[in-house]
Q: What sequence folds into this?
DNA sequence: TTGCGATAGTTATAGCCTATAACACTCTAG
DNA sequence: CTAGAGTGTTATAGGCTATAACTATCGCAA
């Protein structure tokens, strides 16, 4: 694949790549990750499918890029939310709220990260790092609310607990499992957040 | 498709159908739902792919059967667990434990029910009924631990809370998200169960 | 300014899959 | 013992990913 990182050629290349990403996200939103089709994207862009292999090594490769992009976007969102205040409790609330907004506005994007994985597939190492970056703001905020011994470990456990509880709500909400069930996801989410903040 | 419900023909038919199901589950376990291939199943059974269309209208049709089979199996598992004791608290523990065993022993089967859905796809009505059957034993056990006004609603809310918390752990565990993270899923699960029983 | 090499696109093709159609065999029920 | 239902086959259409071989174009350097 091409080397130059600047110049008109590189600029055009990046334009095409992001346009592909945009179409890909649209497809994922309406047909899920398994519905992602290079051929369909190419047609929407007025090209033929093989042309896209100049930009992405494979369909899986594109999907991996999208997963990493989702991770990065969530990490930035979470970090920005934490930066909006200095008070630890407010930070936890802000991060949790931002997480929910992020998940609800694009459920398939959330599930691309935290949903059903393909058994064989292993995410690149960068994904693990980004997952930790998403985790970190919550943990440091929760740590700041603690005093005494083993603060590190206790705040980690608390963060895991918060994370799994919020994810429990978000994942069922994103999957539509509350749709037939007299449940208010936003309220439930708030209660789960409170349950950890009170403990 | 054929009518008779008994006789040698019907018996053979059922044998083939269940053999297809078995191969399908094996494929799902090792390649996920998206890896399910009628042609591969046919080859494993020494037949050609079109032959399977005598038994299943389509690949999606087979998948729907598998989803419903998973629902039914989980419903029976949960009901059996609840029936093992009369004490409500023990019932909640038994059902939760059975749920975790069921989920961990076949993560892809659990995720087939509670994991990422395909956006367009709508499960048959029977799925919703079975989901309620899975929910019911927990709710009645939790209701039996309550007294006072609005017991119905309070036990429902409590069951939703328990369900989302357990699912939060199970879904992240099934997806392998704890693998790189010093977390003991079984312990976490037990703590989450306890958190609801104590509330 | 021009021409050469890198880049971007094409068509053709292989291979995998689902699904249908048309055909042949076999078994069972009357 | 035979007619028809049921089961399986091959052939085929059409979708997809992906590679190969070819062509056109663009931009940089001489």
A:
């Amino acid at each position: 694949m091409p080397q130059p990182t600047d110049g008109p050629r590189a600029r055009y290349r990046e334009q095409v790549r992001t346009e592909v990403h945009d179409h890909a996200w649209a497809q994922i939103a309406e047909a899920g990750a398994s519905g992602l089709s290079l051929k369909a994207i190419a047609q929407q862009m007025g090209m033929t499918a093989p042309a896209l292999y100049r930009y992405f090594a494979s369909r899986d490769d594109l999907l991996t890029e999208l997963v990493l992009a989702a991770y990065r976007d969530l990490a930035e969102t979470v970090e920005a939310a934490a930066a909006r205040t200095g008070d630890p409790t407010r930070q936890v609330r802000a991060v949790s709220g931002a997480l929910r907004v992020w998940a609800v506005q694009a459920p398939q994007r959330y599930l691309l990260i935290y949903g059903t994985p393909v058994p064989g597939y292993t995410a690149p190492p960068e994904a693990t790092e980004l997952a930790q970056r998403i985790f970190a703001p919550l943990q440091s905020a929760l740590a700041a609310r603690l005093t005494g011994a083993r603060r590190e470990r206790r705040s980690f456990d608390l963060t895991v607990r918060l994370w799994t509880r919020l994810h429990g709500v978000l994942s069922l909400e994103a999957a539509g499992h509350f749709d037939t069930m007299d449940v208010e996801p936003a309220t439930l989410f708030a209660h789960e957040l409170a349950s950890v903040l009170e403990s």
Observations:
- Residues 2-4, 9, 12-13, 16, 47-48, 50-51, 54-55 of chain A lie near DNA strand C (CB under 10 Å from a C1').
